[in-house]
Amino acid sequence: MIRVVCFGDSITARKEGYPSPILTYLLSERTKGYHFINAGVSGNTTDQAKLRFKKDVLTKKPDAVTILFGANDSATHKLVDLEMFKQNIYEFTKQVGPKKTILITPAPVDESLQSNRTNVRMQQYALAVKEVAEVTGSYFIDFFSELYSKPNCKALLKGEKDDGLHFGKAGYEILSDLIVHKLKEMKETGKRQGK
After folding, report:
1. How many whole angstroms separate alpha carbon 68 and alpha carbon 105?
2. Of the candidates 189, 191, 193, 187, which has an alpha carbon nearest to the alpha carbon of residue 32?
3. What are 15-31's pLDDT values in tens digits?
4. What is the pTM assigned to this prediction?
5. How many domains does the chain have?
6. What digits encode the pLDDT tens for the residues 105-147?
7. Over the range 125-136, which residues count as b (16 or more CB within 10 Å of their CB) and which as e?
8. CA distances, 131 to each of 1, 116, 122, 187 (Å)
9. Cα–Cα distance between 57 and 34 in angstroms, integer?
10. What is the domain extent for residue 175?
11. With bands split at pLDDT 50, 70 and 90, how would you rate the model's confidence at 189?
C-alpha cells in the first residue's frame, strides 16, 4: 500500500458535504493500492503548518506528499511574506525529499466574493511554488493556471460556502484527477529507476 499524505489548509481539509474530506475521498475512489492521509488544517498558513509538519507528515512515513498552501499565506489579514512562504515550501520539500513531493499551486479566487484575496497576489504565490518545484526537481501541479484558464472558472469556484475561495465538487474532481496523474507519473519514474 502506497501511503500518501495530503498536507495543506482548508482546501485540503474541506468535506463539501462528503462523510470525510472530499479531496482524499475522491482520491481513494480513483485509485487502487494507495492509502491517503488527510493532513489539512483550516486557516493554516505555511508558518503555522511548520509547527505540525513533523507530527502530521514525517511521522506518517509517507511514500508521497502533496503540499497545497497559499490561500491563507496570500490573504491580507494573515499575510506571510512571499519569500518566507517560498522558504517554508522549500523546507517542506527538502525534508520529504523532492522525488516524493507533489507541490500544488493555490487555486484562483472569485474576487467579487473575496475581500482579502486577489488573483494577482494568488498568482505570485503560485509562481513561488513553481520556482521551488523547479529548484528542487519535485513534482508540480499548476492548479492555479488549470482553473484560471477555464472559461467556467467562476462556476468551478462555487462551493458550499460560496465565498469565492472554497470551491465545490467540480473543482475537487479536477484537482484529484491531476494528483492521480502525478502519482502514476511518480510510480513510472520509480519503476524506471528500479525502485
Report:
1. 6
2. 187
3. 999 999 999 999 999 99
4. 0.97
5. 1
6. 999 999 999 999 999 999 999 999 999 999 999 999 999 999 9
7. bbebbbebbeeb
8. 31, 24, 14, 23
9. 16
10. 2-192
11. confident
